[in-house]
Amino acid sequence: MKKFKYTRFLAVLTFCVLSFPLTATASSPLFYNLTTDDYKGALKDISSAWSYTSVSGASSLGHIFGFELGVIGGGADTPKVNSLSQSAGAGSIAQLPSAALFGAITVPYGLTVEAEGIPDTTVAGVSAQSESLALKWTFSQMLNLPVDLSVKAFGTWDEFKFAGNVGTSPSVYTTFDLNDDMSGAVFEVSKKLLFFEPYAKAGIIQASGKMDITGSTQVFSTGVMSDTENVTGNILMVGADFNLGILRLGAEVGSVFNDTRAAAKISLYF
Predict the structure, then answer these.
(1) How far apart are CA 126 and CA 25, in angstroms?
(2) Quick check: 119 and 101 in contact, CB under 8 A?
(3) At what angle do helices 36-49 and 79-87 cross, to 10 degrees?
(4) Cys staple from 257: which of 44, 121, 149, 204, with CB 3.0 to 4.6 Å?
(5) Is the CB of residue 182 less than 8 Å from the CB of residue 220?
């Protein structure tokens, strides 16, 4: 029990510290009279903010073995969520934050297994929990190339809960439960230069979002209390890792689902 409480405390601290610029002004989303296109647009925004990233380049953690532990925080611009929430009577939600505890291990042949997660944590009126797994293959280790090249496949399983008053005459207190499952793949290229490693990555991402409603029948324009939609998009990111002894600092910015996405990382690696 004490270990669980410590982990949850660390997760909340990670979320608040690394995502402070976003959480400081964030409020809970709210939706009303959504069309299918509206819901897909909101799903893209939310998925962009919580899309998987290790904030790292193509290189492995070592030719034989390596290990990394750290925390990642960031978020994304959410124009569709912002406009829909304001139409429903909520405050401005120009960005959504995200954060996770991160771990990775490299084994022979350039294979790196990565994992991220955050237990059920409530910030700015939204309850979020997330789990991710990824497998990266740095195939350039088998070749004599001046840069590192890798391919990575990932899966993410998120759940978000929030609530508010929906509709008019009268408004009804309504809870939203969104399960967002994502998968995708990226191609990465990077170059080690002294103590830092600039990189770029490009790939594809798919998200499947199931939102269940309790309360108002006016959340969806059709009156249904549950809807599942699928969306696809692209990933384009650039960034750099700074390696200072066993301390690694990383930052990246780019586009996911055509939304601006940024993230930062602090980790220890061996």
Answers:
(1) 13
(2) no
(3) 130
(4) 44
(5) no
Q: Using omega within 30 degrees of 0 as the cis cutoff, is the peptide bond preceding 29 cis?
A: no
Round the CA-based radius of gyration of the chain to a whole number and report it.
Answer: 19
By the 8 A CB rule, do 235 and 202 touch? yes
Cβ 240 vs Cβ 251: under 8 Å: yes
- Give the start-to-end residue ranges of the domains of the chain: 2-269
Task: Identify the helix (H) or strand (E) that includes residue 73.
Answer: strand 66-77
Dihedrals φ, ψ of 40, to 5°? Answer: -65, -40
| HSE toward the beta carbon, residue 41, CA cutoff 13 A | 15
* Half-sphere exposure (Cβ direction) of 115: Cα atoms closer than 13 Å: 7
The pLDDT-based confidence of 56 (bands split at 50, 70, 90) is very high
pLDDT digits (tens, 9 = 90+) for 142-168: 998 999 999 999 999 999 999 999 987
Which tokens go with 149? Answer: 């090249």
In this prediction, residue 123 has a pLDDT band, given cuts at 50, 70 and 90, of confident
Name residues whose C-beta falls within 8 Å of residue 5's C-beta, 6 or more positions apart in sequence. none
pLDDT digits (tens, 9 = 90+) for 72-86: 999 999 999 999 999
- Cβ atoms within 10 Å of 73's Cβ, excluding its own: 24
Question: Which residues are within 8 A (CB) of 104 and not within 5 positions of it... i.e. 6 or more apart?
Answer: 54, 56, 61, 66, 67, 68, 112, 113, 114, 115
CA distance 267 to 145: 27
3-state secondary structure of 125: coil
Read off the pLDDT band of 26 (50, 70, 90).
Answer: low
Whole-prediction pTM: 0.89
Rounded CA separation 253/242 (Å): 15
d(CA 161, CA 151): 33
